[in-house]
Amino acid sequence: MTIEEVLRQVQTYAPGADTQLITDAYMYAAFHHRGQVRKNGEDYLVHPLNVAYILAEIRMDVETIAVGLMHDTIEDTQATAEEIGKRFGASIAEMVEGVTKLSKLAYKGKLEEQAENFRKLVLAFGKDIRVIIVKCADRLHNMRTLQFQRPDKQTRIARETLDIYAPLTHRLGLELMKRELEDLSFRYLHPTEYAELDAAIQLDEVERGEYVAATKALIEDTLSSRGMECRVTGRVKHLYSIWRKLQRTGKDLSELYDLLAFRVIVPERDSCYVALGFVHSSFFPVATRMKDYIAMPKQNGYQSLHTTVVGPDGREIEIQFRTEAMDRVADTGIAAHWRYKNGRLSVSNGELAELARLRGFIQMARDIEDPADFLEAARSDLSATIHVFTPRKDVILLPEGSTALDFAYHVHTEVGNRAVGVKVNGRLVPFRSTVKTGDTVEVMTRGDAKPSREWLEWAHSHRALEKIRKRLRETLSEHSVALGREILEGALRKAGATLKRVQADKEVGARLAEAGFEDIDALAERVVAGGISPTEAARILSPPPETPPPPPSAFQSLIQRVRKQADNAIVVSGETDILVDYARCCRPMKGESIVGYITRGRGLSIHKSECPQVKGLDQERFVSVSWDVGAKTLHQSVLRLVLEDRPGILAAITGVCSTAKVNLWKADVRQDEDDRAVCDLGVSVHDVGELDGLVRKLRSVRGVVAVDRAVAI
After folding, report:
1. pLDDT tens digit string along 689-705?
2. Cβ neighbours of residue 674 under 8 Å, at least 6 residues apart?
């Protein structure tokens, strides 16, 4: 491959184009790649030349071809983006940098590196979509020379190509590139199946060529005899698509008849439908095999009428009807929309983004923070095949299997967050209802509505799932901040300050920034998460005075003694002055294993660790809690005693409690169906050990049948 071949290819579709930029880019790349060789021993410059030629084959503009020549200079040479910007302009420098891998960053593994690289790529083509076209061309030439890589690397690169780059080229409408990427990936991922299928196709190549020529002539005669101007082409479908169909249907190659596809190119859009009618009158159409992509274009702008008919010798053949303009878009996608002006090819980036319909995809790269999650979401999003309508008949593209909830989040994040109901084709349906192509979906919203955790089970697309998780995290953060502020208030009071006084301090912002916190709320969240102790956080907000404080007054001492007598028995992140609520479902008591749960509106709720209610709660809302060993807190509990009907038994029970120095606050007695007495005895104890000791003593009283701890009070 030479630079002259690249320039000649550009002249085939843009005669007289200003190609000096391409020549200058070639000289720059040749200088910086001098002395470098590829794994196959070739001069490294062969690779960027091939990338540039691939871009010229799909009729790209001179700037993009220049970027193709220089795309590896920043990554593999001493060239810099600043240098390229000064010499070739900021636009080209940004594109070259957009293609450059994040090789200087440390990653945990190949998957994370791959995911973050791809995320950067998507964000880059949010600024200029030509970046992704250069990257796809780069990947195509690397796939053509993949035989020189290690087997494990061949498999990894082929899998990434099939999962990401082939769907991307399809989304961009670069069908010729997509087919080659799929076939090359197929060759390395399934070498045995590839070789067998390729040999079988080659075996009948001559006979199939004769059949294509005869059928092509028959279609031309059918239409020209009706006075239609047309051009007909025929081809064998590419190997990967044939293999996928074999896998999907479970058939052998000998049983698969529609291996051939024919194109009928006509002058005008309306002629597509006329030609379809004439073909159906001459060939028997296969029921349910017609698709109208003219009325409903694919997500990449592809338009065509598809039908399958029974052709000569009873073989099924696919025929596509389209105009010349539709045909150019089918092969080169968005590149078909380049316009030739003043010696250069150009089109606005906004028009390109709209043509490619990738705006939502770009936004997803911004919304999903975790690279691995984004990579998985990208794979799902790139396979979108469902066309669903809004009430205004706007088309929303969704992945297969999407639900009504996915639709809401694809329309807009806030539409999803505030959704309270949904109608599909005019009927109210649950959020989890699956939608299909052609459905009209209407979402009803309310300003104060919020998503719930069960929505994570109802959404299908990664885009919707990530938006739901983000809103749930924000809601949890609000509760965490409230609890954290309460903890900080207690810690500050011990230091002789208050949160209100701290917030009025002009220096508090600087102290927080120095400690690495954006604001007080961020500090409060870190306290709840256990990342910093309340005492340390209080020091950040209100540093201790340089001189010791004066001794407390008699009044302050009195207040402190009263406060200590009312100490909470619960320690939250090292702090004891937190308002808590003991769960009524399990009535935890000091000495028992406990967990804390941030409730909605009732502060911190304390449960026994083994409480059945805990298992169904949101795990992200739990905080670490423990009992304050030094606190002297009384717990009210109820013991249920089953008693024999004998004189003096109640006196014996109250005597045991008195001897144990346990206060009684309740004694309800009733008769059960077996004529035995049931006594609900309310006792006040310091911990579970004291309660267990009392139970043992009560069970030893004559006439006491059973003693159990009751939950309800």
Report:
1. 999 999 999 999 988 99
2. none
* Region 384-450: CATH code: 3.10.20.30
Cα dihedral 125, 131, 135, 140, rounded to 10, equals 110
200-337 is a CATH 3.30.460.10 domain: yes
**Pairing relationship of beta strands 635-643 and 677-685 according to DSSP bridges:** antiparallel
3-189 homologous superfamily? Hypothetical protein af1432 (1.10.3210.10)
Cβ atoms of 699 and 707 closer than 8 Å: yes
Structure tokens at 405: 């909830």
- Contact of 468 with 418, CB cutoff 8 Å: no
Catalytic residue set = 75-76
DSSP state of 693: H
**Residue-wise pLDDT tens digits, 331-362:** 766 555 555 444 455 555 544 544 444 555 55
Domain segments of the chain as ranges: 3-189, 200-337, 384-450, 461-547, 550-631, 635-710
In sequence order, the β-bridge partners of residue 396 are: 388
Q: Tokens 């957009």, residue?
A: 98
Tokens of 183: 């076939």
If you average pLDDT over residues 176-198, what whole number do you get?
A: 90
Domain 635-710 fold is: Alpha-Beta Plaits (3.30.70)
Other beta carbons less than 10 A from residue 314's beta carbon? 8
Q: DSSP character for 402?
A: -
For residue 77, count other CB atoms closer than 10 A to its CB. 17
Residue 58's Cβ-count burial label (10 Å; 0-12, 13-18, 19+) is buried
Q: CA–CA distance from 267 to each of 32, 229, 296, 337, 605 (Å)? A: 48, 7, 20, 18, 73
Q: Are 691 and 709 in contact (CB under 8 A)?
A: yes
pLDDT of residue 333: 63
CB neighbour list of residue 311: distance below 8 Å, 6 or more residues apart? 215, 218, 260, 283, 317
Give the up-direction half-sphere exposure of residue 365: CA atoms within 13 A in the CB hemisphere: 20
**DSSP 8-state code for residue 514:** H
C-alpha radius of gyration, the chain, whole number? 37
Cα 510 from chain centroid (whole Å) = 36
The model's pLDDT over 575-634, given as tens digits with 9 standing for 90+, comes to 565 667 788 888 888 888 888 887 765 667 888 888 888 877 777 777 778 887 777 778
